[in-house]
Write a structure and sequence with these properties.
Strand content: under 5%
Number of helices: 11
Shape: elongated
Radius of gyration: 20 Å
Length: 224
């Protein structure tokens, strides 16, 4: 009879498979960022698995790319910050932009991939970001904090396009900024109608809040 402690400490085959899949995706993302033309065989070698294992999880390169995009989507979902009556809406917007930027920066070199319909596949996974951003923008417009020169939905898509454009500019090194996350948040706030000086102050305050959230999460992970 297996002891209770043994049952809780041993990983199930399903959880091991999920962990192995995640590790392959993490390695694949890093390899494709380093070399967009990396083959499935090269990715399998980098992940320390045989080709049969890689193809068992991802039958095609397209399936592997979709897996990486899904992984990015999971990270993006965690960037959404709920409206808090005690927090100015502009700070919440800036925090969302900064958190989204940090995820995008992690995966930005994947924009160099030439897979068919990659742009559409990225756009599909950004749909929840558009919806969330639209609701925050609409709230800010109703409060008179954001400009209403564009409908909230159109402005949300424009802001997402701005962030993606800045990520691509980082790729080709046409935009070099030591505090890129703060700069991206500042640019978005200015686009929403916030004055440049105030946008800079808000973006820096939001970055500090996001840093504290990240530190707390790391401490929690270490404790558990």
């Amino acid at each position: 009879m297996t002891a209770a402690g043994d049952m809780t400490s041993s990983a199930s085959p399903g959880s091991r498979a999920q962990a192995n899949r995640r590790r392959i995706l993490d390695v694949a993302a890093a390899e494709l960022a380093r070399n967009p033309a990396a083959s499935m065989e090269e990715i399998a070698s980098a992940a320390g698995v045989v080709r049969r294992t890689l193809y068992g999880h991802f039958p095609t390169r397209e399936a592997l790319i979709d897996g990486i995009l899904d992984l990015a989507s999971e990270d993006i979902a965690r960037t959404q910050r709920s409206l808090d009556p005690s927090e100015p809406v502009a700070v919440t917007s800036a925090r969302c932009t900064i958190a989204l930027w940090r995820v995008g920066d992690k995966y930005r070199l994947l924009f160099k991939l030439t897979e068919t319909n990659l742009g559409a596949r990225i756009e599909e996974r950004l749909a929840p970001v558009h919806e969330h951003g639209t609701s925050i923008l609409r709230h800010g417009q109703q409060l008179g904090i954001y400009s209403d020169h564009l409908p909230a939905e159109a402005l949300s898509r424009a802001l997402a396009g701005l962030v993606l454009a800045l990520l691509e500019a980082r790729n080709d090194e046409s935009w070099v900024e030591p505090e890129a996350d703060v700069a991206a948040a500042r640019a978005c706030l200015i686009t929403m109608g916030v004055s440049p000086r105030e946008a800079d102050e808000i973006a820096r305050a939001a970055a500090a809040l996001e840093d504290s959230v990240g530190s707390s999460a790391q401490e929690f992970g270490a404790a558990t």
